[in-house]
Specification:
This protein has 337 residues and is of the alpha/beta class. It folds into two domains: 119 residues, 3-Layer(aba) Sandwich (Rossmann fold), CATH 3.40.50.720; 180 residues, Dihydrodipicolinate Reductase, domain 2 (2-Layer Sandwich). The chain has eleven helices and 17 strands. The strands form four sheets. The chain has a seven-stranded mixed β-sheet. The chain has a six-stranded parallel β-sheet with strand order 3-2-1-4-5-6, sandwiched between helices. The longest helix is centred in the last third of the chain and has 20 residues. The chain starts with a strand and ends in a 6-residue tail after the last strand.
């Protein structure tokens, strides 16, 4: 399967390696606005590089493209690929605009290609185990979800050059809201949210430090979600994530900051184990995400994360931001409105 990549930043580099290591895929081209990134992609993989994605789509006879541009730059690249019947694996969030997300769903339905949102956490072992426990009835009816996903301040100040153009909800809460929907199968109906702008604004970065949201779901049940990116850089890992899911029969507790391994030397570290390198090759949920996407492209399985799920995620995140602005409960728009 001939792949191109649009955006050769953090996730683009991850998937450049994952695609190149796959026996089923071939990385043939990379598009990046950065000359240094284009040079790096060519040096590592020997692929053709482009400044313009449309030119790559035209020249390379691609079967699929992975789009890993910043949050606010997904729409045009995904739409053009689908119009050319190129299968799309799209980074989260789908878009930062409801009308754009609806348009991508429409275009994908009329295309001969599929669109998949890269919500790989669905296929991370702790959440697969939790999903199995919900499906087999061990938890009973899910009553409440409490989850938080926080980054250190390194992310908005040093890792991302564009953090002022997004928020911790678009960047991080998108994962939490998708997992809540994936685990329970319940659509969100109403949102109340609060956001704080203080530390990052004082540093010249106009975005929220932290966002809290309460979400009500169809059929009952609530979720409380926290995302922020102002934790100190001294934290043992860049990201920390905790889940508490309470059902009518039992409860599940997930701590992704404790992945069963700690290194103690000059620095106390808790390295991730859900993505590992062994014998020079990557293994883990990001690899599994690519394999599932290719299975779906080949018609072996249903789309693992269809664009409709991405639209629902955008609708919920849009409601979160409107709730912050209006200081009131906001209804989540209907999928087919």
């Amino acid at each position: 399967m001939r792949f191109g990549i649009v955006g050769f930043g953090i996730m683009g580099k991850w998937y450049g390696r994952i695609i190149s290591e796959s026996d089923r895929a071939q990385l043939v081209a990379v598009t990046s606005a950065s000359e240094s990134s284009r040079k790096l992609a060519n040096e590592i993989y020997g692929v053709n590089t482009y400044e313009d994605a449309g030119e790559m789509y035209e020249m390379e006879n691609l079967d699929a493209v992975y789009i890993a541009t910043p949050d606010f730059l997904h729409f045009d690249f995904a739409r053009e690929a689908l119009l050319r019947d190129i299968n799309v694996l799209l980074e989260k969030p789908m878009t930062m605009d409801v009308s754009e997300a609806r348009e991508l769903v429409r275009v994908e339905r009329e295309s001969d290609a599929i669109g998949t949102i890269r919500f790989g956490n669905r296929f991370s072992p702790p959440f697969l185990k939790t999903k199995a426990a919900i499906l087999d009835g061990r938890l009973g009816e899910v009553i409440s979800l409490n989850a938080r996903l926080n980054d250190t301040i390194y992310v908005p100040t040093k890792m991302l050059s564009w953090s002022a153009k997004t928020t911790p909800a678009w960047f991080l809460m998108s994962h939490l809201l998708d997992l809540a929907y994936y685990l329970t199968g319940r659509k969100p109906t109403k949102v109340l949210a609060r956001g704080i702008k203080k530390i990052l604004v004082s540093m010249g970065i106009d975005t929220y430090d932290v966002i809290h949201a309460m979400v009500e779901y169809e059929g009952g049940g609530t979720g409380i979600f926290e995302t922020g990116w102002i934790l100190p850089e001294s934290m043992p890992s860049v990201a920390t994530s905790f889940w508490e899911i309470v059902g009518s029969k039992s409860a599940v507790f997930i701590d992704l900051s404790e992945q069963m391994l700690t290194f103690a030397s000059s620095k106390y570290e808790k390295p991730g184990t859900i993505m590992v390198e062994l014998n020079g090759k990557l293994h883990g949920y990001l690899v599994y995400m690519l394999e599932l996407f290719m299975d779906a492209v080949e018609g072996k399985i249903p789309n693992p994360v269809p664009f409709e799920d991405g639209l629902l995620n955008v609708l919920t995140l849009d409601a979160v931001h409107r709730a912050i602005e209006t200081n009131s409960w906001v209804e989540v728009d209907e999928l087919n409105a």
